[in-house]
């Protein structure tokens, strides 16, 4: 047998450890660190679409071809054409321009609800995880109750008190999605709190406040950034579901849920009124998911 | 649902139908010409029913049935009917409850297409000189399905029951006029009124005034009387699977159909399954797929096709059409000129034509629908689309400034108004389109309209019914006669509040005119005085007409003989029958609850 | 070879036969000529991980491949059972196992071979057996897959197999999950599942790693028995003592190449290749006590010796004999003292279980106290109490003679910097967001950072200063500024542990607690880190509380030793004394196992 | 979506080795544990009912007016005189606390009250509708699980493009608005292809599309959370051990890996039950199915407090029971949790 003096450490990141799981038979190790730099096509597509969404949200005039409110009584329910890319609705309004103009509110609902939901979740989830046995028990029960409670009722309360507006939907949906996230935050904070680096920081005699601010919260909440983006898509879907049940934004708002609800009676004769806004919701939710997963995997890759 | 249908002695069928009809024809009293036979009314074809029978069979057949044609309709079978909304009770004050009550309960009189009434349980009637006492003569052969007789005693009991909380809407119609009832003999009852009320009989033709067995009302629980009221009608409630369907079963003893029924004797059908299908697409789709034999409330977008494919009937509800009621007590609309300006400001006709795809008539009047007896077409036309006029009026009212978005401004205040409406309860999706069109069109004149759709809870709880909660509200109110004006425009007073006055109009002149009309001795005077009231209202412009409330019915060619009754537009199944034995045999019948949905 | 088996202890029931049956076999069971393996990643990049490896295994023979992580030894082993993994490319001039060409076998063919003709044993049954299923089910599965369909028969065979591998009460064990069994029992169960169908070849990939030393010996015994029965064994290990105990022939792999091969005796006693020599040198034991394990360590010590007089901070230390000044340690005051420490936990069954009982010790300045024990002996709990993380139920810990365990949380916080810790897994003890420099400056900051209201200039100056001190610390542990700039994830295991040590030194502690600090490292890296620790103690006079399960490491490092078993300190005394004249029978047994394993390489 | 399960928190100290074989463990705290669970469940139900009661009582608008208007189909103000009998009948005029105590008293007696609008005991109203809703909800759950498991077994940790495409499909499924999916299914399969009834009713054929409507998005979620665990488990050493035993890839996936990936799916299921109910409202609406969803919407719209409370309590009960089942399933899947619990 020939002795080969050539020595090439194959896995720099893993070299020097033998404990735990034996090295995976395929070299997941070395590539992973570099993978995140290579952005998949799907993420590119999602990125471009997200850019369009943001443009539509902040400067709808740039993308819209028509006044979203302008009615044309002569041509209701016109099929998609060169003039009206997505056809017209029951008032002869240009559906494409309405979807573009509806982006602001829909995204606001998505972002807002996700922010409210995740915000509540962060506060109460961390509180439950760090606040001791009582806080954990009380908040844990509250989360249970919220889980068991139909979101529909909550939505109704808010709408009855504040009227059907974007803010109302944000509150209702935010509260609806909060318990799930709160549980995640709680678990996350608990696991970070038990982590080696938190113990290490405590061993150095750092003040608990500093440990909380420097280690526990940042590390527990970082994965939530991805979750937040996923929540955006979910919130838009939820909000449009509420619109479907008659708890939507007041007309003539072109909020997507409202468009979906308005398009429902015309599904056979004017399919575009239902299908296209639905695709917009789906594409947005999917975009948020794809970007969220990408962010998540990037963050994980960094770890 | 697990008890098999009991054969109700079909031999016992009384056959005095035609006799009743003849009696009625010769009856005296205050019956208008043209009410003699429903057949004539049908042949004349009033504005009430816009019937399009592509099959070309239904119309003649109905007449054939009426004139006693030799061809005997197919007996039996359970008809599948798809309906929009589910009632809370079979009988009640809600219009949906009238549709079901009409299958189970009989009324004293039956309305015809021209707004007159024909005998039903009451074969004859007479009113005193002072118009305060109505004497009704009743059939002597009618009994409720619990076996108790429908006699004068029962009628008197029912009057008291309706007025005393048994039916809120009945009380709203007759409450200010009814005093008491007196039983003269078994077949005669006197109704004493506190004030003359010309449209008395027409009022009684609505199913709010359906007759129930006093024994049942007294001895059974509220729940039983809600889900299975005992009447004398052509059907009884067999089963009610809430959220899914109500099953009605033929009353084998039935032999007292109203004079304008297409036939006498028990119903041809073994029964009806009244399916609740809230979604329009599903409802129409279920007709297309053959799951339903007939459906109500055909979505506007399907009407054109339904006219081609099915026996399609559209019924225009009399009473107050769908209008925007303007708040005359508070806010911007206290100024009559502003109300008039808004009435002129939009092209409502084009709006309705577009929003309903030409399937529902535009109603220019804010007070009565065109199918209401006493409707004045000229008074209705006072506010054609005239943007210039609207602008002039607003300029004159001091709304001369303009904000950046075009909204008019007066003393720093924007011409901004809030219009509330119960979406999907009062206003259909198509109506919602029309309201949005209205909103958009009114921008040209400088109105900034905020639309506030209400959830049913908000809508009915009264939170949006007070003067300070809206500038405009959208609503309609069915009524077979112009007396609805009294309900809607009687000023609200401390002693006698009138929540139905949703414009909060407090105008002595209008009120007086309406009272005169109600008490006018002749039809001509009634009509003339109601005309005057409509002109007066029109000038005040407290409401803006949009479209007529319509009921529609599409019937597949498997069944025939289905019609919409004229008082409220409910479907009548008593005369309905399958067109062939194959069609009947392919129907699922009862007791198939578990094995259904094969097709 | 003979020398190895001669050292067998009574624990070894059946020593491997002389020379095995190797010579008798005419045709090898496994014959591999020039095996090459590549892996390709998601982007199609190929890496060549095994280069021209050739190996032959005969019936009744044990061939060992020894190497550190990343040497390609496991890949080679897995290739022999057709489980190289997805995205792998295998090429060899000859590759036959049990007479079949493994390059042409399809998956269905493999399935009939694996588990039947070739058994496979991985390290640590806790993760190598399905943790959700009973071991009986796992063993039964091997039988079911190879034709034993009848349930009752399977159950009987499972019990029989468990009995064969020396499991007491097999019918009970068969119904338990790996986590319910002790390490030895579950490893036996794993072996039972691998040999269920009496394969003629067993591939054992690190079969004893992560096991306690006594258990290791038992498991190796078991394998030796199989070998004696004629089973061929391919043993993969990083541990010379294990290899020496079992192997007839040894291949040394490094970076995918075989750098040396020969009989076990040749390779272990007379290594030719420098890499092999380096590896053997790096094994710590009593013999290496007071010496440096690596070439580099020796060189650095020598360099230091020449400038010894100029050093300000170093304790006066003899170069080749760092332990010398410690001799009069008993006069040195104890920095950390534990008195009668006791701790119990409430178990899931509601009963209290005492994990530490009445443990007392003193750690003297500039010296090392080693605590050794097997898993569950309570040594880590003792460390946690010493660190002040958990309060003892009884007893007390004194730091510099002052109360420590009895302090309030806040009171202890201000003195935490005096006792620091180095963990087994450094990576998990670093905040995943932080660079090495940040980690060190944070440690330097402990308790000294300027307040929130300090001026930005003061803070900038402070940061500048800390940054320089971090660089100094890094140099001290042999890291460069480039290392500090990196994320720990991108450092090697040894570098991470150096960083971890630097962090522990940053607050200039009185005591550093090393909790299994080198247990997860490859032997050569472990040697480097141990050398670093020795050097630091020598130059800085650092005091260590050194906790490990590894007797060799403990002996190499410690001045005094505390032996723990089941929460009780069974033996306490001078390191050499404990190793040479153990008093407690447990210590004797422990050392017996060690001797059974340890090679007499030197 | 990365749902973190906190399942594997084991006791601090490892079992020591003195007794090599541990025989059965004492079952001292089982009764206490059950008692605790039941108490917790009762608390959730009580809290849900109380919140509902408060919400319904404090909403703007007058309940008596609402009832009266609903009975007549009108939208208007009502006079005190008109409202008096209704207030009298239902006790709307009593102080809130008195109403609440009455309500609680009824609950304790097992009396949920009488529907304001249907005049039926709430138990009857719910009893009539509970079966179709439960059937729909649990069929949808079953559909979701079946889809997710098949998808995982076939596509997880396969060629990269396969995994990527299918995990993309999962994301898409999870992002589907249910009503939109429902309408499309209805149009395509019932109206165009005529495969299923348009009006679903409560029959079996009518169950397919509503169950898919609820099941497909949930399957997306389930598959997402389970895929992560599945792929992680595929890297576990015991998978290699099983393969080395001669097990086929499919066998390993089915017999070993799948079981491990069930846990996050189970916890998601526990959470999803509440949300599934809200989704059932939508499916019942689109497909004209009877069920509690429709009852709830109608009751909420009509502020039929006894019915709303009853339905909410029932949903809470179903949630609580499902979660107890999920907890049990957890232990069945991962017996190690029995000790941790």
Automatic annotation (TrEMBL), chain A:
<keyword id="KW-1003">Cell membrane</keyword>
<dbReference type="InterPro" id="IPR050366">
    <property type="entry name" value="BP-dependent_transpt_permease"/>
</dbReference>
<feature type="compositionally biased region" description="Low complexity">
    <location>
        <begin position="12"/>
        <end position="23"/>
    </location>
</feature>
<dbReference type="Pfam" id="PF00528">
    <property type="entry name" value="BPD_transp_1"/>
</dbReference>
<protein>
    <submittedName>
        <fullName>ABC transporter permease</fullName>
    </submittedName>
</protein>
<feature type="transmembrane region" description="Helical">
    <location>
        <begin position="41"/>
        <end position="63"/>
    </location>
</feature>
<feature type="transmembrane region" description="Helical">
    <location>
        <begin position="270"/>
        <end position="295"/>
    </location>
</feature>
<feature type="region of interest" description="Disordered">
    <location>
        <begin position="1"/>
        <end position="32"/>
    </location>
</feature>
<dbReference type="InterPro" id="IPR035906">
    <property type="entry name" value="MetI-like_sf"/>
</dbReference>
<keyword id="KW-0812">Transmembrane</keyword>
<feature type="transmembrane region" description="Helical">
    <location>
        <begin position="168"/>
        <end position="185"/>
    </location>
</feature>
<keyword id="KW-0472">Membrane</keyword>
From TrEMBL, chain B:
<keyword id="KW-0813">Transport</keyword>
<dbReference type="Pfam" id="PF00496">
    <property type="entry name" value="SBP_bac_5"/>
</dbReference>
<dbReference type="InterPro" id="IPR039424">
    <property type="entry name" value="SBP_5"/>
</dbReference>
<keyword id="KW-0732">Signal</keyword>
<dbReference type="InterPro" id="IPR000914">
    <property type="entry name" value="SBP_5_dom"/>
</dbReference>
<protein>
    <submittedName>
        <fullName>ABC transporter substrate-binding protein</fullName>
    </submittedName>
</protein>
<feature type="region of interest" description="Disordered">
    <location>
        <begin position="1"/>
        <end position="32"/>
    </location>
</feature>
<dbReference type="InterPro" id="IPR030678">
    <property type="entry name" value="Peptide/Ni-bd"/>
</dbReference>
<feature type="domain" description="Solute-binding protein family 5">
    <location>
        <begin position="117"/>
        <end position="479"/>
    </location>
</feature>
<comment type="similarity">
    <text>Belongs to the bacterial solute-binding protein 5 family.</text>
</comment>
UniProtKB/TrEMBL annotation, chain C:
<protein>
    <submittedName>
        <fullName>ABC transporter ATP-binding protein</fullName>
    </submittedName>
</protein>
<keyword id="KW-0813">Transport</keyword>
<dbReference type="Pfam" id="PF08352">
    <property type="entry name" value="oligo_HPY"/>
</dbReference>
<feature type="domain" description="ABC transporter">
    <location>
        <begin position="32"/>
        <end position="280"/>
    </location>
</feature>
<feature type="compositionally biased region" description="Low complexity">
    <location>
        <begin position="300"/>
        <end position="315"/>
    </location>
</feature>
<dbReference type="InterPro" id="IPR003593">
    <property type="entry name" value="AAA+_ATPase"/>
</dbReference>
<dbReference type="InterPro" id="IPR003439">
    <property type="entry name" value="ABC_transporter-like_ATP-bd"/>
</dbReference>
<feature type="region of interest" description="Disordered">
    <location>
        <begin position="296"/>
        <end position="331"/>
    </location>
</feature>
<dbReference type="InterPro" id="IPR027417">
    <property type="entry name" value="P-loop_NTPase"/>
</dbReference>
<comment type="similarity">
    <text>Belongs to the ABC transporter superfamily.</text>
</comment>
<feature type="domain" description="ABC transporter">
    <location>
        <begin position="336"/>
        <end position="591"/>
    </location>
</feature>
<dbReference type="Pfam" id="PF00005">
    <property type="entry name" value="ABC_tran"/>
</dbReference>
UniProtKB/TrEMBL annotation, chain D:
<feature type="transmembrane region" description="Helical">
    <location>
        <begin position="262"/>
        <end position="283"/>
    </location>
</feature>
<dbReference type="Pfam" id="PF19300">
    <property type="entry name" value="BPD_transp_1_N"/>
</dbReference>
<dbReference type="InterPro" id="IPR035906">
    <property type="entry name" value="MetI-like_sf"/>
</dbReference>
<protein>
    <submittedName>
        <fullName>ABC transporter permease</fullName>
    </submittedName>
</protein>
<dbReference type="Pfam" id="PF00528">
    <property type="entry name" value="BPD_transp_1"/>
</dbReference>
<feature type="domain" description="ABC transmembrane type-1">
    <location>
        <begin position="130"/>
        <end position="330"/>
    </location>
</feature>
<feature type="transmembrane region" description="Helical">
    <location>
        <begin position="205"/>
        <end position="225"/>
    </location>
</feature>
<keyword id="KW-0813">Transport</keyword>
<feature type="transmembrane region" description="Helical">
    <location>
        <begin position="179"/>
        <end position="199"/>
    </location>
</feature>
<feature type="transmembrane region" description="Helical">
    <location>
        <begin position="305"/>
        <end position="333"/>
    </location>
</feature>
<feature type="transmembrane region" description="Helical">
    <location>
        <begin position="38"/>
        <end position="59"/>
    </location>
</feature>
<feature type="region of interest" description="Disordered">
    <location>
        <begin position="1"/>
        <end position="25"/>
    </location>
</feature>
């Amino acid at each position: 047998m020939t002795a080969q003096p050539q020595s090439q450490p194959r896995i720099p990141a893993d070299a020097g450890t033998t404990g735990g799981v034996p090295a995976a038979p395929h070299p997941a190790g070395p590539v992973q660190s570099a993978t995140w730099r290579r952005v998949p096509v799907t993420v590119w597509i999602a990125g471009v679409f997200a850019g369009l969404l943001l443009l539509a949200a902040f400067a709808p005039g740039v993308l819209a071809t028509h006044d979203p409110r302008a009615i044309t009584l002569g041509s209701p329910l016109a099929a998609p054409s060169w003039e009206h890319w997505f056809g017209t609705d029951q008032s002869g309004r240009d559906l494409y321009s309405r979807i573009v103009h509806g982006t602001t509110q829909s995204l606001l609902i998505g972002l807002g609800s996700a922010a409210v939901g995740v915000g509540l979740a962060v506060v109460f989830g961390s509180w439950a995880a760090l606040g001791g046995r009582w806080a954990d028990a009380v908040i844990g029960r509250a989360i249970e109750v919220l889980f068991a409670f139909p979101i529909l009722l909550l939505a109704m309360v808010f709408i009855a008190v504040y009227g059907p507006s974007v803010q109302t939907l944000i509150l209702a949906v935010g509260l609806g999605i909060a318990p799930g996230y709160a549980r995640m935050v709680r678990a996350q904070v608990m696991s970070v709190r038990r982590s080696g680096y938190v113990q290490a920081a405590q061993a150095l005699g750092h003040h608990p406040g500093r440990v909380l601010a420097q280690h526990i919260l940042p590390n527990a909440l970082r994965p939530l950034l991805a979750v937040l983006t996923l929540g955006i898509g979910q919130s838009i879907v939820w909000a449009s579901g509420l619109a479907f049940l008659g708890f939507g934004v007041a007309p003539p708002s072109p909020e997507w849920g409202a468009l979906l609800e308005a398009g429902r009676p015309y599904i056979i004769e004017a399919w575009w009124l239902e299908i296209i806004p639905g695709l917009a919701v789906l594409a947005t939710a999917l975009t948020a998911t794809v970007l969220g997963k990408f962010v998540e995997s990037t963050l994980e890759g960094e770890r | 649902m697990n008890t098999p249908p009991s054969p109700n002695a079909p031999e016992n069928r009384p056959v005095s139908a035609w006799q009743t009809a003849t009696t009625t024809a010769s009856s005296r009293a205050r019956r208008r010409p043209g009410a003699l036979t429903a057949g004539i009314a049908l042949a004349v074809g009033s504005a009430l029913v816009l019937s399009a029978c592509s099959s070309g069979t239904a119309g003649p057949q109905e007449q054939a049935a009426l004139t006693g044609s030799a061809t005997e309709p197919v007996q039996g079978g359970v008809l599948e009917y798809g309906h929009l909304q589910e009632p809370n009770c079979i009988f009640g004050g809600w219009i949906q409850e009238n549709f079901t009550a009409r299958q189970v309960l009989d009324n004293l009189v039956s309305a015809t297409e021209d707004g007159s009434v024909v005998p039903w349980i009451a074969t004859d009637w007479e009113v005193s000189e002072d118009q305060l006492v109505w004497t009704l003569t009743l059939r002597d052969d009618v009994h409720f399905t619990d076996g108790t007789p429908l006699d004068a005693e029962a009628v008197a009991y029912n009057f008291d029951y309706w007025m005393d909380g048994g039916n809120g809407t009945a009380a709203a119609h007759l409450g200010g006029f009814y005093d008491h009832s007196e039983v003269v003999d078994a077949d005669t009852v006197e109704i004493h009124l506190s004030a003359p009320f010309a449209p008395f009989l027409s009022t009684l033709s609505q199913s709010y005034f359906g007759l129930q067995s006093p024994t049942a009302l007294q001895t059974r629980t509220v729940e039983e009387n809600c889900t299975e009221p005992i009447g004398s009608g052509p059907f009884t409630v067999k089963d009610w699977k809430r959220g899914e369907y109500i099953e009605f079963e033929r009353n084998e003893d039935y032999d007292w159909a109203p004079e304008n029924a297409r036939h006498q004797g028990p119903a041809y059908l073994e029964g009806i399954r009244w399916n609740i299908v809230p979604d329009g697409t599903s409802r129409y789709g279920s007709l297309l797929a053959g799951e339903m034999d007939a459906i109500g409330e055909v979505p506007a977008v399907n009407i054109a096709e339904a006219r081609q494919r099915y026996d399609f009937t559209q019924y225009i509800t009399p009473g107050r059409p769908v209008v925007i009621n303007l708040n005359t007590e508070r806010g911007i609309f206290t100024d009559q000129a502003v109300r008039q300006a808004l009435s002129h400001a939009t092209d409502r006709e084009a709006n309705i034509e577009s929003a309903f795809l030409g399937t529902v008539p535009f109603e220019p009047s804010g007070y009565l629908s065109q199918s209401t007896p006493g409707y004045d077409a000229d008074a209705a036309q006072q506010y054609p689309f005239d943007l210039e006029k609207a602008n002039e009026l607003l300029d004159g009212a001091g709304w001369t400034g303009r904000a950046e978005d075009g909204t008019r401004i007066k003393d720093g205040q924007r011409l901004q108004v809030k219009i509330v409406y119960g979406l999907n309860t009062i206003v259909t999706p198509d109506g919602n389109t029309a309201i949005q069109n209205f909103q958009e069109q009114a921008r040209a004149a400088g109105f900034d309209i905020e639309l506030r759709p209400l959830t049913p809870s908000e809508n009915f709880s009264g939170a949006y019914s007070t003067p300070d909660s809206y500038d405009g509200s959208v609503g309609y109110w069915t009524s077979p006669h112009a007396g609805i004006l009294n309900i809607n425009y009687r000023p609200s007073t401390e002693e006698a509040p009138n929540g139905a006055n949703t414009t909060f109009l407090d105008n002595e002149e209008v009120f007086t005119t309406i009272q005169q009309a109600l008490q006018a001795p002749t039809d001509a005077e009634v009509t003339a005085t109601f005309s005057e009231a409509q002109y007066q209202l029109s000038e005040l412009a407290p409401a803006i007409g949009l479209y007529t409330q319509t009921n529609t019915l599409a019937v597949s060619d498997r069944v025939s003989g289905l019609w919409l009754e004229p008082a409220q537009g409910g479907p009548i199944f008593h005369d309905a029958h399958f067109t062939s034995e194959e069609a009947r045999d392919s129907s699922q019948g009862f007791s198939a609850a578990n094995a259904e949905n094969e097709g | 070879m003979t020398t190895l088996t001669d050292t067998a202890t009574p624990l070894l029931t059946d020593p491997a036969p002389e020379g095995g049956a190797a010579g008798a076999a005419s045709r090898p069971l496994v014959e591999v000529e020039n095996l090459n393996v590549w892996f390709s990643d998601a982007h199609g990049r190929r890496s060549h991980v095994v280069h021209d490896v050739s190996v032959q295994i005969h019936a009744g023979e044990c061939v060992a491949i020894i190497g550190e992580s990343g040497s390609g030894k496991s890949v080679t082993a897995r290739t022999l059972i057709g489980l190289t993994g997805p995205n792998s490319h295998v090429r060899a001039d000859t590759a036959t196992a049990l007479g079949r060409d493994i390059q042409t076998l399809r998956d269905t063919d493999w399935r009939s071979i694996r588990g039947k003709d070739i058994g496979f044993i991985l390290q640590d049954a806790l993760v190598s057996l399905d943790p959700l299923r009973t071991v009986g089910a796992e063993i039964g599965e091997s039988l079911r897959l190879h034709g034993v369909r009848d349930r009752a028969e399977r159950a009987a065979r499972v019990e029989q197999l468990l009995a064969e591998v020396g499991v007491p009460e097999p019918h009970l064990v068969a119904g338990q999950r790996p986590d319910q069994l002790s390490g030895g029992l579950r490893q036996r169960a794993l072996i039972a599942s691998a040999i269920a169908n009496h394969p003629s070849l067993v591939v054992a990939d690190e079969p004893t790693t992560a096991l306690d030393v006594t258990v290791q010996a038992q498991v190796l015994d078991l394998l030796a028995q199989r070998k004696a029965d004629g089973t061929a064994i391919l043993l993969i290990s990083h541990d010379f003592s294990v290899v020496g105990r079992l192997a007839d022939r040894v291949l040394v792999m490094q970076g995918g190449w075989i750098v040396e091969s020969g009989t076990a005796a040749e390779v272990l006693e007379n290594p030719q290749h420098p890499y092999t020599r380096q590896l053997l040198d790096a094994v710590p034991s009593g013999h290496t006590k007071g010496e440096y394990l690596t070439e580099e360590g020796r060189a650095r010590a020598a360099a230091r010796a020449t400038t010894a007089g100029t050093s300000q901070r170093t304790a006066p230390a003899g170069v080749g004999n760092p332990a010398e000044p410690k001799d009069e340690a008993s006069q040195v005051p104890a920095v950390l003292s534990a008195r009668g420490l006791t701790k119990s936990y409430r178990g899931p069954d509601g009963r209290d279980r005492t994990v530490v009982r009445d443990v007392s010790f003193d750690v003297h300045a500039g010296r090392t106290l080693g605590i050794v024990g097997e898993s569950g002996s309570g040594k880590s709990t003792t460390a946690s109490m010493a660190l002040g993380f958990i309060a003892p139920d009884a007893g007390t810990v004194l730091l510099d003679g002052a109360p420590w365990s009895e302090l309030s949380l806040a009171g202890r916080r201000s003195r935490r910097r005096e006792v620091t810790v180095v963990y087994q897994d450094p990576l998990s003890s670093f905040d995943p967001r932080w660079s090495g420099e940040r980690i060190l400056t944070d440690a330097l900051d402990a308790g000294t950072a300027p307040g929130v209201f300090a001026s930005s200039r003061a803070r900038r100056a402070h940061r500048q200063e800390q940054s320089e001190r971090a660089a100094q610390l890094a140099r001290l542990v042999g890291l460069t500024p480039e290392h500090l700039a990196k994320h720990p994830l991108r450092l090697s295991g040894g570098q991470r542990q150096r960083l971890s040590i630097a962090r522990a030194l940053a607050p200039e502690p009185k005591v550093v607690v090393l909790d299994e600090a080198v247990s997860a490292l490859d032997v050569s890296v472990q040697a480097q880190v141990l050398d670093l620790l020795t050097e630091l103690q020598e130059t800085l006079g650092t005091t260590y509380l050194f906790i490990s399960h590894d007797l060799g490491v403990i002996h190499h490092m410690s001045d005094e030793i505390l032996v723990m078993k089941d929460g009780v300190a069974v033996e306490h005394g001078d390191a050499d004394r404990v190793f040479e004249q153990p008093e407690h029978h447990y210590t004797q047994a422990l050392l017996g196992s060690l001797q059974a394993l340890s090679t007499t390489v030197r | 979506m990365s749902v973190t399960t906190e399942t594997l928190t084991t006791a601090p100290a490892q079992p020591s080795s003195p007794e090599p074989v541990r025989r059965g463990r004492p079952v001292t705290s089982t009764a206490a544990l059950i008692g605790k669970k039941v108490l917790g469940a009762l608390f959730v139900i009580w809290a849900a009912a109380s919140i509902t009661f408060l919400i319904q009582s404090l909403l703007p608008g007058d309940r008596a007016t609402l009832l009266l208007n609903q009975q007549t189909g009108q939208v208007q103000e009502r006079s005190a005189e008109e409202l008096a009998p209704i207030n009298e009948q239902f006790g709307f005029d009593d102080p809130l606390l008195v109403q609440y105590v009455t309500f609680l008293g009824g609950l304790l007696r097992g009396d949920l009250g009488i529907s304001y609008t249907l005049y039926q005991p709430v138990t009857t109203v719910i009893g009539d509708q509970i079966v179709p809703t439960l059937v729909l909800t649990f069929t949808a759950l079953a559909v979701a699980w079946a889809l997710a498991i098949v998808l995982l077994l076939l596509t997880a940790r396969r060629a990269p493009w396969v995994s990527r495409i299918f995990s993309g499909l999962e994301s898409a499924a999870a992002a589907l608005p249910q009503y939109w999916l429902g309408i499309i299914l209805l149009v395509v399969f019932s109206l165009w292809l005529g495969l299923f009834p348009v009006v679903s009713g409560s029959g079996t054929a009518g169950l397919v599309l509503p169950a898919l409507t609820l099941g497909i998005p949930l399957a997306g979620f389930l598959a997402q959370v389970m895929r992560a665990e599945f792929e992680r488990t595929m890297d576990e050493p015991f998978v290699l051990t099983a393969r080395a035993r001669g097990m086929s890839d499919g066998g390993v996936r089915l017999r070993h890996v799948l079981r491990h990936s069930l846990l996050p799916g189970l916890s998601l299921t526990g959470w999803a039950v509440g949300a599934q109910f809200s989704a059932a409202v939508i499916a019942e609406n689109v497909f004209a199915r009877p069920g509690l969803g429709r009852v709830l919407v109608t009751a909420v719209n009509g502020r039929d407090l006894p019915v709303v409370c009853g339905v909410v309590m029932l949903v809470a009960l179903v949630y609580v029971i499902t979660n107890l089942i999920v907890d049990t399933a957890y232990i069945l899947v991962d017996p190690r949790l029995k000790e941790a619990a």
